[in-house]
Amino acid sequence: MKVIATLILCIPVTALLLLAQTSAQNAQSSRFIAVEGASLRARMEAAAKKHRDAGAQTNFWTAYSFDVRSGVAVDPGDAVQFAGSMNSYSGMTVFTGKVNGMTVETKNLGVFTLHEPGGGKRTRLEIYNLDNPREYGGYPVYWLGRGGNEESLAYLRAVVEADEAHKLVEHATVAIALHDDPRVVGILKEFVRRSTSQEVRSAAVHWLGDIGGEDAFLADLVRDEAEHKRVREAAAHALGRSENPASLNTLTSLYGTIANQEVKKSLIHSIFINANEA
User: Fold this and answer.
1) How far apart are CA 51 and CA 245, in angstroms?
2) How far apart are CA 258 and CA 183, in angstroms?
3) Alpha carbon distance 3, 88 (integer Å)
4) Which domain holds residue 200?
5) Tell me: the pLDDT tens digits for 179-216?
6) What are φ and ψ of residue 162, in 5° steps?
7) Any bridge partners for residue 33, and if so which?
8) 143 in a domain, yes or no?
9) Is 19 left (phi over 0), alpha (psi -120 to 50) or beta?
């Protein structure tokens, strides 16, 4: 994950006004192939069967919408005077910030998984803004409807735990973090503790900082000299994004106890960010 500091971008106001509308989604979903089924998993299996039965030899997408947490934007279009931060995860960028004092949000997102023709192997997982037109690489899109949080989180968690390609599992981790569900924090903390993928662990740590309430957990990661340097740096950055008034004291206290110079640099950056946003 690459974290990009506070910035200002230029985006047309009209694009921002469209973020809360669903007309574009309706136009797009009319191009999708609707799939029926009693559960998200059943609809995924039905999509793979439908693709096989059609004799298609191309890759195909399965896609569904989900409950998106507030205060985040993915693929928001072009923006006017956007002030905030954007974080890139192997090509997937998430925006957190405001335009003219108003938080930029994209609540109409979908989880898109690209499958090989047989339907078994996943090759990509993306989060796309359903309000924006897209060609999807020319591959057919099988629309699974709305994914309930329990089903969606279970699917994405299985993707992460399958230990597939780094980009795929990192994107699945971000997709989990984008869900508006109280179980997300527990899932992310478990990834930090148990995943063998540093991409997954670093992304999970970053989102624990954004979601908030986990300063003690993050501080312990920064202190742990046996922990992977990348995760310690991610935890230091995450503390810098915390809205907890006590975070600045935590950061300055940590700085005096850490020997690793790269981790100390991350703490300096976070102290600066936190102090200027206080």
Assistant:
1) 53
2) 32
3) 6
4) 181-278
5) 999 999 999 999 999 999 999 999 999 999 999 999 99
6) -75, -10
7) 142
8) yes
9) alpha
Residues composing the chain: 278
- 3-state DSSP assignment of residue 228: coil
For residue 170, being part of any structural domain is answered with no
Please give the structure tokens belonging to residue 202.
Answer: 């670093």
Return the ∠ at Cα 154 (arms to 209 and 49), rounded to 5°: 135
Overall domain count for the chain? 2
The position carrying tokens 């310690």 is 232
Token pair in block for residue 177: 């973090």
Report the predicted TM-score, pTM, of the whole model to 2 decimal places.
Answer: 0.87
According to DSSP, residue 68 is labeled B
Picking from 123, 148, 173, the residue at the C-terminal end of a domain is 148
Q: Span 71-85, mean pLDDT?
A: 80
DSSP letters, 85-139, are EEEEETTEEEEEEEETTEE-----EEEEEEE-TTS--EEEEEEEETTS---GGG-
